[in-house]
């Protein structure tokens, strides 16, 4: 029998913690579950919260137990589930006024019945009691409603929602579909939880972000494009919205736009340019972040039909496409601009010199430069960049793109606050 390899440390049920990010690291989240069929999504929600760093504890109503087993939520969270309030005063231990209490109470799914009980201060289940403790003790409370549409539209329920919102309760969703007010997607609920702990340093600002590649058609089935994944633009748009900005996201590629931003999907550079000009021309923006990778060249002519391969050799004449950032700078000379500069420079000094010259030429507030030789940065979840402004360059080395986005927006927030 061979020797056993080194064993992992920690809790095997929690080995996914922070695998996607550390936005909720050190935060205790009480995930309160009520008697909606949407409760079958709760194990996935619990795991996703953990992937972003949260320590999750589940609290269930008796009605919820008829739809999802407590053992399932104990597996999902790695913690015992609160099903009854006993002499151990679980509600005080989890949400009382002491240092070990929860940082966030999340009721998902939340039935119309529970919404009204919480609004009226009725504490007759573990969930409503925990919610009451949160409201009385200053713990952030987030609610993800789920109900049949007529129940959700009930004027009494709507009045209770408005009452809770006036007391600082955040609502996420629902999604109105098939005659039902369905619980918001897991990702959207997690996004709202992260937002609770995110400084709102971009609140009141309007930011236009571009991301992803564009394509230029050779014929109806063939295109010229590049290796951009769009992950950087996506991360910037999502984090800007999380920090309170009103975001418009113009993007190409296959990744879906983040929730809670106005988005415009495009294919060609011409379409991206038109969408950017339309947005900037329709209302005032405080910043324009150009993280897209529009194609630099397009075919001189586009074939109407698929070009046959039987002819053998094929030559393609190309023409340069308009530089969107240059057009924006000419039309809106005062807008705060963040431009990305991808180069295959041989050294960091050469990269910095090229990027600084680009920044001065464009009169950009910031230029984010990265070396893409060997395909670095494209398609990957991590990136290494130089953040260049008027002061000393900031180097971010080998970090997840979501973290790079935060670092960039930290500088943007500081610059726009001046």
Describe the structure.
The strands form 5 sheets. An 8-stranded mixed β-sheet has the order 13-12-9-14-17-18-19-20, with helices on both faces. The chain has a 5-stranded parallel β-sheet with strand order 2-1-3-4-6, sandwiched between helices. It has a 3-stranded antiparallel β-sheet with strand order 5-8-7. It is elongated and about 80 Å long. Helix 1 crosses helix 9, helix 5 crosses helix 8 and helix 10 packs across helix 14. The mean pLDDT is 91. It has 14 helices and 20 strands. The longest helix is centred in the last third of the chain and has 17 residues. Helix 1 links the parallel strand 1 and strand 2. The protein folds into 2 domains: 173 residues, Flavin prenyltransferase-like (Rossmann fold, 3-Layer(aba) Sandwich); 203 residues, CoaB-like (Rossmann fold). The protein is an alpha/beta fold and 418 residues long.
What brief labels describe this structure?
418 residues, alpha/beta, Rossmann fold, 2 domains, eight-stranded mixed β-sheet, five-stranded parallel β-sheet, 20 strands, 34% helix, elongated
Query: What's the CATH architecture of the largest domain?
Result: 3-Layer(aba) Sandwich
CATH class of the largest domain: Alpha Beta
Helical/strand content category? alpha/beta
What distance separates the N and C termini?
68 Å
- Mean pLDDT, to the nearest integer, reads 91
Task: Give the C-alpha Rg.
Answer: 25 Å
Largest sheet, in brief, is: 8 strands, mixed
CATH topology of the largest domain: Rossmann fold
Q: Which runs of at least 5 residues are low in confidence (pLDDT < 50)?
A: none
């Amino acid at each position: 029998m061979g020797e056993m390899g080194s064993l992992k440390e920690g809790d095997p049920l929690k080995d996914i913690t922070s695998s996607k990010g550390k936005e909720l690291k050190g935060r205790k989240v009480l995930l309160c579950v009520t008697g909606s069929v949407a409760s079958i999504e709760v194990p996935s929600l619990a795991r996703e919260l953990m992937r972003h760093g949260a320590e999750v504890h589940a609290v269930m109503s008796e009605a919820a137990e008829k739809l999802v087993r407590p053992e399932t939520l104990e597996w999902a969270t790695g913690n015992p589930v609160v099903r009854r309030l006993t002499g151990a005063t679980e509600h005080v231990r989890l949400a009382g006024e002491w240092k070990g209490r929860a940082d966030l109470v999340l009721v998902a799914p939340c039935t119309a019945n529970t919404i009204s009980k919480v609004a009226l201060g009725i504490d007759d289940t573990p969930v409503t009691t925990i919610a009451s403790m949160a409201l009385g003790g200053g713990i952030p409370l987030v609610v993800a409603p789920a109900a049949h549409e007529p129940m959700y539209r009930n004027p009494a329920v709507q009045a209770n929602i408005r009452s809770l919102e006036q007391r600082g309760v955040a609502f996420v969703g629902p999604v109105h579909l098939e005659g039902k007010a369905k619980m918001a997607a897991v990702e959207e609920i997690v996004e709202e939880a992260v937002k609770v702990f995110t400084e709102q340093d971009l609140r009141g600002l309007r930011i236009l972000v571009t991301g992803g590649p564009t394509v230029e058609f050779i014929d109806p089935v063939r295109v010229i494009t590049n290796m951009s994944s769009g992950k950087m633009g996506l991360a910037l748009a999502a984090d800007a919205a999380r920090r309170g900005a009103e975001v418009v996201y113009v993007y190409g590629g296959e990744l879906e736009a983040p929730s809670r931003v106005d988005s415009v999907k495009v294919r060609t550079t011409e379409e991206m340019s038109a969408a950017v000009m339309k947005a900037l021309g329709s209302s005032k923006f405080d910043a324009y972040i150009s993280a897209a990778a529009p194609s630099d060249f397009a075919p001189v002519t586009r074939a109407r039909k698929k070009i046959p391969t039987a002819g053998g050799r094929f030559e393609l004449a190309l023409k340069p496409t308009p530089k969107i950032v240059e057009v924006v700078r000419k039309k809106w000379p005062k807008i705060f601009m963040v431009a990305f500069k991808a180069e295959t420079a041989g050294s960091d000094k050469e990269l910095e010199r090229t990027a600084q010259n680009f920044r001065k030429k464009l009169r950009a507030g910031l230029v984010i430069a990265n070396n893409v030789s060997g395909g670095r940065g494209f398609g990957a979840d991590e990136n290494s960049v130089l953040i260049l402004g008027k002061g000393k360059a900031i180097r971010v080395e080998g970090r997840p793109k979501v973290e790079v986005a935060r670092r960039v927006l930290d500088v943007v927030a500081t610059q726009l606050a001046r």
